[in-house]
Amino acid sequence: MADCIRVPLLLLSICIFSSLHPIRGQNNVIAKVAANADLPLKPAGGPGPAAGIPGAGASLPRRRSTGWKLAEEGVCREDLTRLCPKHSWNNNLAVLECLQDRKEETEIAAECNHLLWNYKLNLTTDPKFESVAVEVCKTTISEIKECAAEELGKGYLVSCLVDHRGNISDYQCNQYITKMTTIVFSDYRLICGFMDKCREDINTLRCGSISTGEKDVHSQGEVIACLEKALVREAEEQQGAHPIKDECKRSIMRVAELSSDDFHLDRYLYFSCREDRERFCEKTLAGEGRVYKCLFNHKFEEAMTERCREALTTRQKLIAQDYKVSYSLAKACKSDLRKYHCSADSNMPRAREARLSYLLLCLESAVHRGRVVIGECQGEMMDYRRMLMEDFSLSPEIVLHCRAEIEGHCSGLHRKGRTLHCLMRVGRGDAGAIDANCQRALQTLIQEADPGSDYRIDRALNEACESVIQTACKHIRSGDPMILSCLMEHLYTEKMVEDCEHRLLELQYFIARDWKLDPILYRKCQGDAARLCHTHRWNETSEVMPPGAIFSCLYRHAYRSVEQGRRLSRDCKVEVQRILHQRALDVKLDPELQRQCMTDLGKWCSEKTEAGQELECLQDHLEDLVPGCRDVVGNLTELESEDIQIEALLMQACEPVIQTFCHEVADNQINTGDLMECLVQNKHQKEMNEKCSVGVTHFQLIQIKDFRFSYKFKTACKEDVLKLCPNIKKKVDVVICLSTTVRNDTLQDAKEQRVSIKCRKQLRVEEVEMSEDIRLEPELYDSCKQDINRLCQNVAFGNAQVIECLKENKWQLTQRCHQRIFKLQEVEMVDPELDYQLMRVCKHMIRRFCSESEGKNVLQCLKQNKNSELMDPKCKQMITKRQITQNTDYRLNPVLRKACKADIPKFCQPVLNKATADSELEGQVIACLKLKYADQRLSPDCEAQIQVILQESALDYRLDPQLQIQCTPEISRLCSEEAAAQEQTGQVEECLKVNLLKIKLDGCKKEVLNMLKESKADIFVDPVLHTACALDIKHQCAAIPPGRGRQMSCLMEALQDKRVRLQPECKKRLQDRLEMWSYAAKVAPAEGFSDLAMQVMTSPSKNYILTVIGGGVAVLFVMGLLCGRFTRRVTQQLKDRCHKIAESGGDQRGEKNHFLKVKLVAVSQSR
């Protein structure tokens, strides 16, 4: 037979005995082997490898026919004495093992080399050894058909049994073939057919010489090592790589496979790693690949020699090409490979099914699907997955396609997986562009290694994150897939370290692009994926589905499916939410987002490098994004509105607030937007930190871009928006549209509101939230941005502080901003619940005094209780501000506006005619109504409201806009102390009245005179006088109702009545008022009869004046009576004269005119 029979991988197991223990003739079989080992050497001139060795036969002396010993040969005696223990000299096999396993630097004589090689050749071809094999392995030969068919006498039988030694179950046969294996593998020329198939490649590659004269026979292991390296170079497509013939490739891989159980059989590796084996694996027993695995585990130790590391790497690369080169892996996983159809017969060692990557992917898929893979096989898989992650060079695709990236970014980082993580960082886009083929190679390698199932596979990650795992994730079992999720949950927290953060994100970038790499997600969702995403019978080892497609399908069904049959299972939805929470930490963890938004990220967000900033930046520029990116960002933002926990960074920042105020909502895990609503409501609590506040506000700002981004609003009002506000997208516009509809329906007393109840409730929530920050009302913010920078640059946004600042500086605003603020105030006065500052500052007072009041009556209720002893000072101050605002324009006082609806156009039309629609009236209309109140000409409802205003403004001059405008300089000059008082009790007005003669400004003097005039109408308008005379009113005027000056007249009569004794303070104040009124009458006389009549009627001396007027009328009446008779006589004379003229028929014009004149005089006298 010209060629040796090729066989399956499962060889080995037995060489350990021959390697560790010399043959001692323990049984008959071993005795026969030893006896045959003592046979004399044949001449080497026949056919075979020795035939080409010059002088090989001539150099050997004649020997005895029996009992020949190697130790007796003179050419080897010196080397034997120097290298081998004396007790081994009587056993030729022990001597052979000793000499061929010598240290590399130890030389033996050339003639001894020849002698040993010829001896080994004779052992493998001698018919006597063959006969021993037939006798010892009789049963085995009959079981192995290939060996039973071999022709005897040519030495092929022993080689066949060596090839099939893994299938030999007979112990005696095993012992014999194991010893023969040791001999065969000591020299590649002794391996059946190897030299014939690889001679040309050996010569071409200059891997060594076939003749012993050119190369030491004991270094022939280097020849196979040279061929193996050439095979690796060809696989990696390195420059100048020589293509090896297929039959030689098969022979090389077969030799590697046959030597996989005992590292002694890989002569090059054995000689390269003998010292390292003693250093690292001294206690590791040889056989079953144990020494290989031990050396692999210590490959990157500092003490490992470079030559051994190189030899180990070469062997690992061969394993990557054919898993059968690993004895332990092939043996442990044999049954599982067959069970899950992961292997197929192939003549090509580099066939797809033989590659380590295919084996790992196939078995990992079985594990992910919940299939049972025996523990021993899983352990072997984990070892080789870790091996792939530690050394990128074991992946020929990485070496081939990532060469430029390695040289440009990752040189000098070869060990412990650092180069691979460097490439992963480049793949993320953190260190420049990466070739698409390199990216695919990296993704494939991560799929093969599957570090998502056990973080320990990734050595670089394991070492970087060890401290974090020990502190943050110590409650999770080591190796559990949830460790990676735990690390992601603590990303950007205090427990995370920088190196771990980088390694974790580098790995998660690739895991996020293949849902199978998250074993928990895959296990919980594979059924849903098959049912909803059409992954039926999907070949798990192929890339049919695009990256991220299945997960995108899953999360769409997790949040958007209404049909019961199209929803995810509960377990799957929980996992989808977990992944979404993780991906929100970094835009690069979302494949679809990164793919669609790559251009926009570079255009708008290149400077946003901190965690979470890139997504916020994309949301800020939502309108500017390309359509594909805008859709992806919009969908993600819509999901966040439903489940804000997706925003992991925001959740970390808001943890104190959530635990204190929102823990019930968070614990319920109900994704209805409640958690964000709770955070908004508690945004200004003391537990709120700056990061959380900024994050919540940012999300509010994003929500105004599209009403869909507010989940609760969208859910409550979706139908109303489609019906009433179609084609409107921005949330602000939708809110305005709906609120306008509600207001119009209310004003028109519509039988049925067009906006649904649930929408109206949520609409109120949205309106209140928008009032909290001016930025949530874009039109107002844009109109006032310039004024904010000028007047409120040091005022923080939020809590409506900027809006309040603009209100306080209303007179300094630009016209556009002023108009917007006035409109805002008009809305707030109609609906005080939208006045955020008022509702916030007076929150507790509203509960105390106005719990039963409707929302629109809250301010009115607070005003009524403003002077209560239980009123909070801050709330009282806020109420005063709103009163000042209301008194500047009647349109800001809805109660007054309604009560005086008829009086305003009747009495104050000139004021209205001067004003424009966009300008404020600065209190002129209210001032006009005050004067008419003094004249007692208002309607009862209007009079009642003006009375309230007069009473309030009498206590605080700031509530009278005209007085404040006209008298501010005089107040500063004459009444500065009174104005500086914290509590205003009418002292400023009293000061102005007292100093009336000192006032220089005519406008101010007029306002003070008006105050005096108003005070005559009711004593309540004069708080100082009312306070001073309160006791006297109770005693002297108790029966007199207030209003229309009645109580004031009562006090004046009491003042003039000497029998009445008033309180000294009251008496003094009344006398002062009389002097003021007297002066006012001189300075401002009546402008007409009606004004005069009103002055008389409201005068404290009304009775005296009326008495004088009545007396005068009586005197005139008496004088009329006395003059009546004379008047009657003149009248009779005129009548007689007229009669005579008529009779004479005179019609002269002069006489007629004279008659008329006389008649008129007479008539007038009679009157």
From TrEMBL:
Cys-rich GLG repeats lie at residues 243-303, 372-431, 433-495, 567-626, 687-746, 754-809, 812-870, 937-1000. It is found in: Golgi outpost; Membrane. Residues 1-25 form the signal peptide. GO terms for molecular function: fibroblast growth factor binding. Keywords: Glycoprotein, Membrane, Repeat, Sialic acid, Signal, Transmembrane, Transmembrane helix. The chain crosses the membrane at residues 1104-1127. PROSITE patterns: GLG1_C_RICH (PS51289). It is a single-pass type I membrane protein. The keyword Membrane applies. InterPro entries: Cys-rich_GLG1_repeat, Cys-rich_GLG1_repeat_euk, GLG1. It holds the Pfam family Cys_rich_FGFR. One of its GO terms (cellular component) is Golgi membrane. The keyword Transmembrane helix applies. PANTHER family: GOLGI APPARATUS PROTEIN 1, SELECTIN LIGAND RELATED. This is Golgi apparatus protein 1. It comes from Gasterosteus aculeatus aculeatus (three-spined stickleback).
